[in-house]
User: What shape does this take?
Amino acid sequence: MVSIKFVKENKEIEVATGSNLRFKAQENNIDIYTFMGKLTQCGGYGQCGTCVVDIVEGAHNLSPRNAVEDRMLKKRPSTCRLACQTVVNGSISVVTKPDKKESLKKLKAEKAALQAAEAVPQESAGEDSPSGKTIASVD
Assistant: This one.
């Protein structure tokens, strides 16, 4: 058994490893949908994108993001998941109905950090060659 903590609801539930996040939330009366989401939700088939949750702890304990999530969550940070497509394999903390504006800020920060990491020159490159390749000397 693993635990899922729903932060906004201040509720923690115990579930079996391999459980679907959306199903377990609904089974325990956790509302994961906004008003419009309730009207347009697809029933857990990954077609509508209305069951978005933000994983604040334990993201490594979830199934990897799939192609459906990558398509639906392009404008959300990597911590956001579709509950219907998420399998829980360990303890996690979840924020239901994450704010879109906050998600955009998080996404921009995530992209900026990624760009900064790519822009840092590698210090391990050779110092004798302008191309950064180490030149071997032969005696």
User: Anything to note?
Assistant: The helical segments are 21-27, 35-40, 67-72, 100-119. The two ends are 64 Å apart (CA to CA).
